[in-house]
Amino acid sequence: QVQLVESGGGLVQAGGSLRLSCAASRNIFGINVMGWYRQAPGKTRELVAAITNNGGTSYADSVLGRFTISRDNARNMVYLQMNSLKPEDTAVYYCNIRAILNQNYWGQGTQVTVSS
Length: 116
Known about the structure:
Layout: E1 4-7, E2 10-13, E3 18-24, E4 31-39, E5 46-52, E6 57-59, E7 67-72, E8 77-82, E9 91-99, E10 103-106, E11 110-115
Parallel strand pairs: 2-11
Antiparallel strand pairs: 1-3, 3-8, 4-5, 4-9, 5-6, 7-8, 9-10, 9-11
């Protein structure tokens, strides 16, 4: 069973930056999409950013221009650089990896708190 482990969350002041990392416990064959989701209290989980196996990226409108997703294919890792953080970015951030044969893995989540 593959486990995804996120790191890099924490408490930061508005305007600050954080870099989230997600590592898979073993190699995943046939990765299609790697992404970051977030869930704030009382809200549904939403897609923040995603990156495909050919490097194509997509972002939620609310983070466009502030967040950057990247991946290291050789190491099965995905990153989220978050700049100009706002209090409304406060949430638990989850890593997700989807691969062939309906493989769909989630991390346990990492808390990001942005103070005003």
